[in-house]
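Record format v2
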Amino acid sequence: MIRPWRTLPAIAQMGKILYNLMIVSGKGYWYGEPPMSVILKRRTFLKFVVTGSVTGMLTLLMGCRRRCSWEDLDIISRDTWRAVPPDVEGSVEGVYDAAANPGGWYVYPQPLAEVLNTIVVHHSALPLSDGPLEIQAKHLSTQRYADIAYHFVIDAAGEIYAGRDLQVRGAHTGGHNTGTVGIVLLGNFEETMPFEAQLDSLKRLGRCLRDTYRITHLAGHRDFQPGVTVCPGAALWTLLPEIARELRLEYGIEGYVGPPKP
Ligand SMILES: [Zn+2]
């Protein structure tokens, strides 16, 4: 994807080239020897052609390099981490019903680009050795959810694991799961700092989610439920505004839309 703000310098150079072209081809200079000022302008013109082309190429290349690539994320599939299939019937979530069970297991009927708006960042508050398999087991047995609550898990090395199907509403942020993407980073960031590799993966994943599904906002779990949770832990929470800025997302909960009306 070509980003306008990256190509603006190239467009400015093109403008200069056209301007100089108009000057050197101006009527009256082509009879006899051109004056020195025109020769100099021709040199300037050539300089702009070269610098304009180089700048243009570089900005276009940078625009391409920063493009989201789901393949590069190398997301570890549920089969690979040996996830068990969701158990909707046996869960507290139950099957969604607009009137009888609005909080139930809800498969978005519309394309995700029309639903998703906010990335919600969590910490696992568990030992680093507890990965997606352990979290899913805990969510299924202790919480009796239908599946792991989060859509993505990022471990200490920055590996990204597929969690709950993205087409299914999460169960990660009380009362604010419709249209939010739940991403959990392994660790307890009330006690330790997140690893650089984790933050890097969060940004790369966030960029892909933003570009693919028109996500507009990023927030921490506690932004949605202040006083209820300290998730994603102080050390990660304080980094979120800067991460949102880097991803060109708004920070906060204002992008939240809410559940569909029955
Ligand atoms: Zn949380």
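The chain has two domains: 4-67, 71-251.
The two ends are 38 Å apart (CA to CA).
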